[in-house]
Each structure stands twice: as C-alpha cells, then as structure tokens.
Specification:
4 strands; mainly alpha; two-stranded antiparallel ribbon; 6 helices; 159 residues
C-alpha cells in the first residue's frame, strides 16, 4: 500500500503493528537459519572482525539511517559464510521491505538508541566457537531492535 503526499510523491505506507511483527519474525527465522548453516571455519575467521566492527560503532545513539547502514553491513558480514544464495537473497529482499516500513514509522534522521553490546555478544559467541549461542544472541538482537521500533510506532500504525 502506498500513500501520496503533495510535493513529495508516493511513499510506502505500513499497514500496522502486526505486519511489522510478522516481517520481523520471518527475518529472525531466516537469519538464524543462515547463521546455523554457515561454514564454521568461515565464522571463526570473521569473528574477530565482527567483534572489532561492533566495538568500533559503539555510539549509544545515532540517526536511524546511520544505524541501518551499519547494521546491514554487519549482518551481511555475519551471514557471508552461508552458501545458500537463495536464502541470502530472501533475507536481503525482506530487509528492504522492513526498512521501507521503518523509514515511514521512524524516519532516517530520527535519533535512536542502539545496543552495541548485542553485536559484540554475537561475535564473542562465534569467537568461542558456540554457533547456537550466537544464534540465540542474534535472535535477541533482532527482538530488541524490533521492540525499539515498536516503541516509536504512532498510534494510527499501532492498530
């Protein structure tokens, strides 16, 4: 569904809280599957870089657009060992839909809190060789991100 604003053109219009929850639940499941099926040797090799990048972007607050770009790059690196190309394409496509939704609800320049330690926890689990704990931490990362966005839903979109 799209809306039109005079002088601004057409914009993606979210249909509500439930759609956002549904999209996020699917993305959590797909990213978890991609991480579980990633090459363990590759995960071990990239874990130090994931940890370094998580620590490098430690700003407790940043514009949503900046967080989105960082988060997409970090998660792309995290899932780069998944050999299932179709799965990674589905994740990328779903993220585009979710981002359009987020931008309508939040806006690129709105300042949001981010929990930098969530990415650090995922990377640390991979450094420890514990992929299942990394998956659990990944699921927690997506869930808390979803909750931070839900807090900002305007009442009309929260129905």
């Amino acid at each position: 569904m799209f809306t039109s604003e005079r002088g601004k053109g057409f914009r993606f219009a979210p249909t509500g809280k439930q759609e956002f929850l549904d999209l996020t639940a699917i993305l959590i499941a797909l990213e978890s599957l991609a991480l579980r099926t990633s090459d363990p040797a590759h995960l071990s090799a990239i874990a130090p870089r994931l940890l370094a990048e998580a620590r490098a972007f430690s700003a407790p607050q940043a514009p949503h657009g900046m967080i989105e770009r960082y988060d997409d790059a970090w998660h792309a690196l995290l899932l780069s060992g998944c050999a299932n190309t179709r799965l990674r394409e589905m994740i990328d496509s779903l993220k585009l839909t979710l981002h359009r939704y987020e931008r309508v609800v939040v806006g690129d320049h709105e300042i949001l809190e981010r929990a930098a330690e969530e990415h650090e926890r995922i990377a640390q689990c991979l450094l420890d060789g514990d992929v299942e704990q990394a998956v659990t931490a990944l699921e927690a990362n997506w869930t808390s991100g979803m909750e931070r966005i839900l807090e900002r839903l305007p009442p009309a979109a929260a129905r």
